[in-house]
Amino acid sequence: GAGVSQSPRYKVAKRGQDVALRCDPISGHVSLFWYQQALGQGPEFLTYFQNEAQLDKSGLPSDRFFAERPEGSVSTLKIQRTQQEDSAVYLCASSPWTAYNEQFFGPGTRLTVL
Amino acid sequence: GENVEQHPSTLSVQEGDSAVIKCTYSDSASNYFPWYKQELGKRPQLIIDIRSNVGEKKDQRIAVTLNKTAKHFSLHITETQPEDSAVYFCAASKTNQAGTALIFGKGTTLSVSS
Asked: Chain A 49-78, CB below 8 Å of chain B: which residues?
């Protein structure tokens, strides 16, 4: 079956531009996570959705970051007024509603802010 | 919050040798410990995981051990092959409820030379 997909795979933005990153989770997966992976580092949690509800956004680094999942499937991570420090790979992961937390990752979007 | 430390940051072995990567965690409530393999430019792929009610789990050449008292867990790869070369990440989370974020270590770059 289809895995988690993300688009675009690569995005170059000029500092100050807004960007929108899309995640298509595995069909039927209730949980959806966004992570940020800086070069040479492990993924760091940004935010979590259970269906359409954003239950945890404690990892969002600033109010320039906004995420939504309006119909409980596709999610969009939006970054306003991008800064150079936003350059990273943004990973999306989804998980079925199970007692344990196996997460399936997408290929990521590599964002470069010039 | 949870903190995961991972060692070593780089590991070079000869084909056929064993490789061991170690992680420690800080939150005694963490109860799910997955290991992900990430090849260059690719998505993290789950290779093995362990729950806190188990001390060891094995899958062919890969095994994971967990010491809850000491709060550390390790990945063991036997009979390494060049295709095992990648970055390996350990992670920890609490799964008392679905949707808990994974906290990742900084990764170990494994190089297997033939």
From this structure: 50, 55-56, 59
Nearest to A101 among B6, B32, B43 (CB): B32
For residue A89, pLDDT beyond 80: yes
Question: Does A112 contact chain B (CB < 8 Å)?
Answer: no
Looking at beta carbons, which residues of chain A come within 8 Å of B45? 105
Report phi then psi at A64, rounded to 5.
Answer: -80, -15
**pLDDT of B1-44, one tens digit each?**
889 999 999 999 999 999 999 999 999 989 999 999 999 989 99
Quote the tokens at residue A88: 């990273």
Contact by Cβ (8 Å): A31, B99: yes
